[in-house]
UniProtKB/TrEMBL annotation:
NCBIfam families: amidohydrolases. This is Amidohydrolase. Residues 220-313 form the Peptidase M20 dimerisation domain. It comes from Hyalangium rubrum. Residues 1-17 form the signal peptide. It comes from the Bacteria. It holds the Pfam family M20_dimer. The lineage of its organism: Bacteria, Pseudomonadati, Myxococcota, Myxococcia, Myxococcales.
Length: 437
């Protein structure tokens, strides 16, 4: 009888160990809740623009050192990396938060409202955490404290990545690429990465969790159409680039609607600016256009790039003009690894409960995609709009009225901590599966 009981206990041991760890997470997470709100308010009152996150980095680094982590600063600019080595052997997992604010003047009436002003592109602007990265930093600081308290039972290593300049990735290289260049995924090399973003489109504490492309790739498009200048009254004496550019704008509308499989995944080709000519009776030499291309699938991204070139160059050629097409690669697709999503689903369901939702893809982009291009990764969205507020009226991210219900923060801390712990526990004894790809 006793033997049977012992056997049953031994067989149940892995399950018991896992729930013991998650109980430990819950206990520690409860004890950091107030601190996380405090950090968030401090960061909110002291926002810093992309690549200028020096105070934020200092706050983070001091916190991680106090917790006894190995800390590296100046990674990819102002980035900070903390490494927590658990006492038990196991794999390495990474958690990422972005740190930068935006040139937006805050209009939310809060006691810790930002009053910071600075110069940006030659203009005086306010600075605000209008994308909620203050909450990302505070929640990851909280998760670091939770997990550091569990060092003795932690089966593996957690790498905390505090990334600068995510917002810069919309217009040039962002902080993720800079950190990757500085070896953020080496020594030790994580086999998976998790990140989350607060989002006003969901209720406080709701978690949008799904596989595949959750945020778009974002590539810049520039087209220079060269004709031959002539009198507006004698178009036959030259080549009119304005007519050619107009045909190209219309031709590009057929790339998504006629030339790729619309049922597989949505995509967008937009021309947002068109410039050419100085006077009504002069046909100019050149017309310049710029635009953006968004996709949710890496293969379709390549197809669209090829077809945009083909359409623009072909139309120009048919008129005796030329089109020089330049596509500048921006953020890739934020593509959640399907196997990792499936594997961690029970963890997210446990933490989010009924709040686990399957949302829609968003056509904005994220440089978290740069990490996902190297190792399997999952990006989650956390709702921050309280009950009683109309979700459709809630100010979106980047608005001067963007508002975060702080009751969502404990959910974020528990998500990050539990994802790390369950990933380590579940991967124990397995070979790391990460391959460069
Ligand atoms: Zn943003
Ligand atoms: Zn953001």
């Amino acid at each position: 009888m006793r033997l049977h009981l012992l056997l049953a206990l031994l067989l149940a041991a892995p399950a018991l160990a896992q729930s013991a760890l998650s109980r430990e997470v819950e206990r520690h997470a409860a004890s950091v809740e107030a601190k996380v709100v405090g950090w968030r308010r401090d960061l909110h009152a002291h926002p810093e623009l992309s690549n200028q996150e020096t105070r934020t980095a200092q706050v983070v680094a001091e916190h991680l050192r106090r917790l006894g982590l190995e800390v590296r600063t100046g990674v990819g600019g102002t980035g900070v990396v903390g490494v927590l080595r658990g006492a038990r052997p196991g794999p390495v997992v990474a958690l990422r938060a972005d740190m930068d604010a935006l040139p937006v003047t805050e209009e939310v009436d809060l006691p810790f409202k930002s009053t910071v002003r600075t110069q940006y592109n030659g203009q005086e602007v306010g600075v605000m955490h209008a994308c909620g990265h203050d909450t990302h930093v505070a929640m990851l600081m909280g998760a670091a404290e939770v997990l550091a308290s569990m060092r003795a039972t932690l089966p593996g290593t957690v790498k905390f990545i505090f990334q600068p300049a995510e917002e810069a990735s919309g217009t040039g290289p962002g902080g993720a690429l800079a950190m990757l260049r500085d070896g953020v995924l080496e020594n030790p090399a994580p086999s998976a990465i998790f990140g989350l973003h607060v989002f006003s489109g969901y209720r406080t504490g709701e978690v949008d969790y799904r596989p595949g492309g959750v945020m778009a790739s974002s590539d810049g498009l520039s087209i220079v159409v060269r004709g031959s200048q002539t009198h507006g009254a004698m178009p036959w004496a030259g080549v009119d680039p304005i007519v050619v550019a107009s045909q190209i704008v219309l031709g590009l509308q057929t790339v998504v609607s006629r030339q790729v499989d619309l049922t597989a995944s949505p995509a967008i080709v937009t021309i947002g600016s068109i410039t050419g000519g100085v006077r009504g009776n002069i046909i100019p030499d050149t017309v310049t256009m710029s635009g953006t291309i968004r996709t949710f699938d890496q293969g379709m991204r390549q197809q669209i790039h090829e077809r945009v070139r083909r359409v623009a160059e072909g139309i120009a050629q048919s008129a005796g003009a030329t089109a020089e097409v330049k596509i500048s690669l921006g953020n890739g697709v934020t593509q959640n690894d399907p196997a990792l999503v499936e594997r961690m689903r029970p963890t997210v369901r446990r933490v989010a409960g009924k709040g686990m939702v399957t949302g829609q893809s968003t056509t904005t982009s994220e440089d978290f995609s740069a990490f996902q291009a190297r190792i399997p990764g999952v990006f989650l969205f956390l709702g921050v709009t309280p009950e009683g507020k109309d979700l459709k009226q809630a100010a979106p991210n980047h608005s001067p009225r963007f508002f975060v219900d702080e009751r969502a923060l404990p959910v974020g801390v528990r998500l990050l901590s539990n994802l790390a712990v369950d990933y380590l526990e579940g991967t124990k004894g397995q070979e790391p599966t990460a391959k460069p790809r």
